[in-house]
Specification:
It is found in: Cytoplasm; Endoplasmic reticulum; Membrane; Nucleus. One of its GO terms (biological process) is intracellular signal transduction. The chain has 21 helices and 30 strands. By secondary structure, the protein is α+β, with helices and mostly antiparallel strands. The chain folds into five domains: about 100 residues, Roll (PH-domain like), CATH 2.30.29.30; about 80 residues, EF-hand (Recoverin, domain 1); about 70 residues, EF-hand (Recoverin, domain 1, Orthogonal Bundle), CATH 1.10.238.10; about 240 residues, Phosphatidylinositol (PI) phosphodiesterase (TIM Barrel); about 130 residues, Immunoglobulin-like (Sandwich). Strands 15-14-13-16-17-18-19-20-21-12-22 form an eleven-stranded mixed β-sheet. The chain has a seven-stranded antiparallel β-sheet with strand order 4-3-2-1-7-6-5, with helices on one face. A hairpin with a 5-residue loop joins strand 2 and strand 3. The protein is globular and about 85 Å long.
């Protein structure tokens, strides 16, 4: 593979260009060049690659199935929203060489990466970048260029002093271990060393008892601290001698603080830790809007990649808008718009492959809009018996279909019913109407006086087989909370636009919370969001709405909140609502925090200490002036944000040492978002990185926050170092 390979890079059925691909000597970077011009087109890092798919596992390669056999085709999938790379090798052997080689290179990685592995990769990467003449050595001029690339504005005399100290051979250049020494001197963490020495009697090591004291006093670990201290030493102490003596060196202490155990995110909440035996309506459920779209709502591309990406992010509620296609084959696209179309069979096949690859095979809900005479596969199934309030545990490995239904679930359990389906639900009424208005398509809708004939027509077009597939999520129109309590069932669901939901939150917050304690509610974006922008999901979660559908293809604060909430509980896509939101007689109203039953407000104190190796702003060579803003999202009384001062010209190791304080009245609903920006006094600050998590998942003490990009992917080794205190 290192010799390079000539392959076809494919973007469409008609766009196939030959490119020369080569893995660089660092085994971390792949370059590809034009065969015709020999000019390097682009490069990507192995660390950017999430997975490699063999065969015709993309729409583009599927369209070329008759021309190229699957053995020669493969797809490189990148993290985040970066487009996939479809390739066709000259032979099956060449394809296997690349597929297996890439998998071996990416397989050892795990998230979060260990500090030692990140450092090793980081050092090697920077050495390759700085060694301009590729002689395996680096002179002082190259070091100065390196510092600027690394976001460091350092005094030349100080830089020269570090260079000379590391140049043990006195050759005037750095190579191998000398560069490692230079890097270690450059990355010396004075704030961590000071903390280490505060608990170390001799300033050189932490004994087992000293480490236990640190864990109890600062990290507030109160159970099994001696066993935990032993495990940390065995896991993170690099010296075999120190491990044998049960002591932790300064290097081992730093490695612990940068590890998952030293993260702000409680590692016990990364796994499935919540009760999964509550009714579905007692959970927040990760949900997407028009899942098939990967661009805008009017002319954007429809793609199975939308489903794959959403499912891999833990999404459990997907949308499949199905319409009659040519030759009677159903197609999926955004009706009454100019979006592209994908065959329904490809969507179903994709769901079969990816629906249950999350750590906990929790049920998936399909919001499936079927227009016309299209039928659905019988294999989705109908149970012999069922309760009206199933749990995620009971529904593992199952797909629930949300849609119209003839009759009620109770009728179906007793025998087939003949009730006329409710076709006036918001999902297929109001939302479809917004679609028509967006596209400015005038349709001959039947007037309200012909309501009975419209019902009869829909009864004729809704197949019994399709109706039987809708079990726990029958669409019903929302006509008010009292009407719902009198006539609706827990197995039914209403869909509301974001505007209608906001009005209900304003006018009847407590009734909305009570309603969501026994029945599912889905919220969808306004039809005016043709650019696929998102609304703030927090205000919907504040009243217990379970299925808050967002445009997953659009990065920003809204998706950060979504990822932050659902990053817990094994990323299964289900998060249990707090007890006061599961009680049908609750008095809780988000506009009145005192209505929450339980202890008083919580004080959250965050000392922002330092940052490490922050990335530059995209497409900029300038050294950043970083600041940190902490944002609280929750009930209106808890919404707040504070920020540090900016540090001029230092994105490598900025020190803030500033304390921010917040009071949380309803901490059970609060999300905390840490944002790093590049300060600009003349224009809007530029985004650098962020990390969002639920307040319930925060570990107090000295913690590292491993930053994520705008797309929600990790950017190691970029991090913040903070001290967290939580008091009543």
């Amino acid at each position: 593979m290192q010799q390079g390979t000539l392959m076809r890079k494919v973007k469409s059925k008609s766009w196939k260009k030959q490119r020369f691909f080569k893995l660089q000597d660092d085994c971390m970077t792949i370059w590809y060049q034009s065969k015709r011009t020999g000019k390097t087109e682009s490069a990507f890092s192995i660390s950017d690659v999430e997975t490699v798919r063999e065969g015709h596992q993309s729409e583009v390669l599927q369209s070329l199935a008759e021309e190229f056999p699957p053995e020669r085709c493969f797809t490189i999938v990148f993290y985040g929203r970066r487009g996939n790379l479809d390739l066709i090798a000259g032979s099956a052997e060449e394809a296997q060489c690349w597929v297996q080689g890439l998998r071996q290179l990416i397989e050892p990685r795990s998230f979060p990466l260990t500090f030692a592995l990140v450092s090793l990769t980081w050092i090697r990467d920077w050495f390759q970048k700085a060694d301009k003449n590729k002689d395996g050595r680096m002179n002082f001029k190259e070091v100065q260029q390196l510092l600027k690339m690394m976001n460091v504005d350092m005094n030349e005399d100080h830089a020269l002093r570090l260079f000379q100290d590391a140049d043990k051979s006195e050759s005037g250049t750095l190579e191998g271990e000398e560069f490692v020494l230079f890097y270690k001197a450059l990355t010396q963490r004075e704030e961590v060393l000071s903390l280490f020495q505060e608990f170390s009697e001799d300033g050189k090591k932490l004994t087992l008892l000293e480490l236990v004291d640190f864990l109890r006093q600062e990290q507030l670990e109160d159970e099994g601290t001696e066993e935990m201290a032993m495990e940390l030493i065995d896991k993170y102490e690099p010296s075999e001698t120190a491990r044998a003596r049960h002591v932790l060196s300064a290097d081992g202490f730093l490695m612990y603080l940068c590890s998952p155990e030293g993260s702000i995110f409680n590692p016990q909440h990364r796994v499935l830790w919540q009760d999964m035996n509550q009714p579905l309506c007692h959970y927040f459920i990760s949900s997407s809007h028009n899942t098939y779209l990967i661009e805008d709502q009017l002319r954007g591309q429809s793609s199975i990649e939308g489903y794959i990406r959403a499912l891999k992010r833990g999404c459990r509620c997907l949308e499949v808008d199905c319409w009659d296609g040519p030759n009677g084959e159903p197609m999926v696209y955004h009706g009454h718009t100019f979006t592209s179309k994908i065959p329904f069979r490809e969507v179903v096949s994709t769901l079969g492959k990816y629906a249950f690859k999350v750590r906990h095979p929790s049920p998936g809900a399909g919001s499936c809009g079927i227009r016309g005479k299209t039928s659905l596969m019988k294999e989705l199934g109908t149970p012999q018996s069922a309760s009206l309030s199933p749990t995620p545990q009971e529904l593992k490995h199952k797909i629930l279909l949300k849609g119209k239904k003839i009759g009620r679930l109770e009728d179906m359990l007793d025998g087939p019913g003949d009730e006329v389906p409710d076709v006036s639900d918001d999902d297929n009424g109001a939302e479809a109407e917004e679609e028509r208005r967006r596209a400015k398509v005038v349709l001959d809708d039947a007037p309200s006086t012909q309501h009975s004939s419209a019902l009869q027509k829909d009864k004729e077009t809704l197949a019994q087989a399709l109706s039987d597939c809708v079990i726990y999520c029958k669409n019903v129109s929302f006509r008010g909370f009292q009407e719902a309590r009198s006539h609706s069932r827990p197995s039914e669901i209403s869909s509301l636009s974001e505007a209608k939901a906001r009005k209900l939150i304003r006018d009847a917050g407590n009734e909305f919370v009570r309603h969501n304690a026994w029945q599912l509610t889905r919220i969808y974006p306004s039809g005016m969001r043709t650019d696929s922008s998102n609304y703030n999901p927090q205000e919907m979660w504040n009243v217990g709405c379970q299925i808050v559908a967002l445009n997953f293809q659009t990065a920003g604060m809204e998706m950060d909140l979504c990822d932050g909430l659902f990053s817990q509980n094994g990323r299964c896509g289900y998060v249990l609502k707090p007890p006061f939101m599961r009680d049908e007689e609750t008095l809780f109203n988000p506009s009145d925090p005192s209505s929450r039953e339980g202890p008083g407000p919580i004080n959250l104190t965050i000392q922002v200490i330092s940052g490490q190796q922050l990335p530059k702003v995209a497409n900029s060579k300038d050294i950043i002036d970083p600041l940190v803003r902490v944002e609280i999202y929750g009930v209106p009384a808890d919404q707040a944000h504070q920020e540090t001062k900016y540090i001029e010209n230092n994105g490598f190791n900025p020190r803030w040492d500033e304390t921010l304080q917040f009071q949380l009245h309803v901490p059970e609903l609060a999300l905390v978002r840490f944002v790093v920006e590049d300060y600009d006094k003349t224009s809007r600050n530029d985004f650098v990185g962020q990390f969002t998590l639920a307040f319930a998942n925060i570990k107090p003490g000295y913690r590292h926050i491993h930053l994520l990009s705008k797309d929600g992917t990790s950017i190691p080794p970029s991090s913040l170092f903070v001290h967290i205190r939580i008091t009543e």
